[in-house]
Specification:
Blueprint lengths: L7 E2 L6 H11 L5 E5 H7 L9 E5 L5 E14 L5 H6 L7 H12 L2 H4 L13 E9 L16 H8 L13 H12 L1 E3 L2 E2 L10 E7 L8 E6 L4 E7 L3 H5 L6 H5 L3 E7 L1 H7 L9 H23 L2 E6 L4 H8 L8 E10 L6
Parallel strand pairs: 1-3
Antiparallel strand pairs: 2-5, 3-4, 4-5, 6-7, 8-9, 8-11, 9-10, 11-13, 12-13
The protein binds flavin mononucleotide (FMN).
Length: 346
């Protein structure tokens, strides 16, 4: 069975209602649906048969799951019971609740347009109750032994981009923890992030302007020794902020900007035997920049710092700002801004 070859099952009309119904099906809380018997006749369709398979589609027409009809009952509207109301998974607590909501829907112009003229939805109207199951559905949220409250899960939930920084300096120990999380040594020559061929192609350069006990300057992180070395003294935050496309004002207010850089050509050469030659190495570098960025975010979150990744930059201006401070052959890829926390802003 291939989902792309099945007839479709469409719940309600495309839009928020369909999205919520599809979500309820996938969450395992909606296991039935109902239609007026007459609407099958109007559409020239047969009532679903037990064992039939259809593809559930979402609002964009995407096929999201295979439904199998498990039971079909045709009942008078007056005979719809509480169990069926609950199986519809739309929060109905009783048949009366179900009935009120459906009476409103079937009375809407949208529903009326698909019913025979003059059709009256009363106690005698026939309702098709279709029960179904989703094939191959595993509702992960309902696994009893999945711990959604692990420290990592909690950290992930609290991680946010914040673009307004307080005036308080960032402690140098916190800066150190960020760098350790991003590229720090973890033993046996390895670092805190995965790296293709364990090459570790990324460099981290810190543009510090408001870090306790660290004079303003541009520093290079040395992962092997977990240390910083000064490249250029003075506050150079503005030069990097000015290389961003729209974010310069708040970027300049970051206590420090971590510039993630890499030698893309060297990486391309190293992976030239992997297709597509010339492109593979760069892909790996960008993937690894993503790993580093997430680690930076999570460490900032753990230490209560505000943080934002900024990739919307003018490449030429950023190259100029980074000229001479990144390792030879490295170009700046993305900026990670960090500062004392005000509030997540979007
Ligand atoms: C690759 C990438 C590039 C981004 N570039 C920028 C940027 O240039 N400016 C900015 O303000 N935020 C930038 N962000 C942050 C996103 O806007 C932010 O992650 C998104 O709005 C989701 O919010 P959250 O991080 O709070 O979950 C970038 C994020 C990523 C992953």
């Amino acid at each position: 069975m291939n989902i792309d070859e099945l007839p479709t099952a469409e719940l309600a009309s495309p839009g928020p209602l369909r999205e919520s119904l599809v979500a309820a099906v996938l969450a395992g809380t909606k296991t039935a649906t109902s239609s007026l018997r007459v609407s099958y006749a109007v559409a020239g369709e047969a009532v679903p048969a037990v064992g039939a398979h259809r593809a559930l589609v979402d609002s964009s027409g995407e096929r999201v799951a295979i439904l199998e009809t498990t039971e079909v009952r045709v009942v008078r509207l007056a005979d719809v019971d509480d169990d069926f109301a609950r199986a519809e998974g739309e929060g109905f607590t009783s048949r009366a609740h179900w009935r009120d909501a459906h009476a409103d829907f079937w009375d809407s112009p949208e529903a009326r347009a698909e019913l025979p003229a003059g059709f009256v939805v009363d106690d005698e109207a026939l309702v098709v109750q279709e029960y179904f199951r989703v094939l191959g559905l595993l509702s992960l949220g309902q696994l009893s032994d999945r711990d959604g409250r692990s420290p990592l899960h909690s950290l992930l939930g609290r991680r946010r981009t914040s673009r307004r920084f307080g005036a308080d300096p960032v402690r140098v120990a916190h800066l150190g923890r960020l760098l350790l999380a991003a590229q720090g040594p973890v033993g046996a020559g390895r670092r805190s992030v995965p790296s293709a061929h364990a090459r570790y192609p990324l460099s981290l350069t810190v543009v510090a302007g408001n870090v306790d006990e660290l004079p303003s300057g541009v520093y290079r992180y040395q992962p092997d020794t977990d240390s910083l070395t000064l490249r250029v003294a003075g506050d150079h935050r503005w030069a990097f902020a000015d290389a961003t496309l729209v974010d310069r004002d708040w970027v300049a207010g970051a206590a420090a900007i971590v510039v993630i850089g890499a030698d893309l050509d060297a990486s391309a050469r190293h992976f030239a035997d992997q297709s597509p030659a010339g492109d593979r190495g760069a892909r790996y570098v960008w993937l690894e920049a993503g790993h580093v960025s997430q680690d930076l975010y999570l460490q900032a979150t753990e230490d209560g710092l505000g943080a934002a990744l900024v990739a919307g930059v003018d490449d030429d201006r950023l190259h100029a700002a980074a000229d001479g401070v990144l390792p030879g052959g490295h170009r700046p890829l993305v900026l990670f801004t960090v500062g004392s926390m005000m509030a997540p802003d979007r």
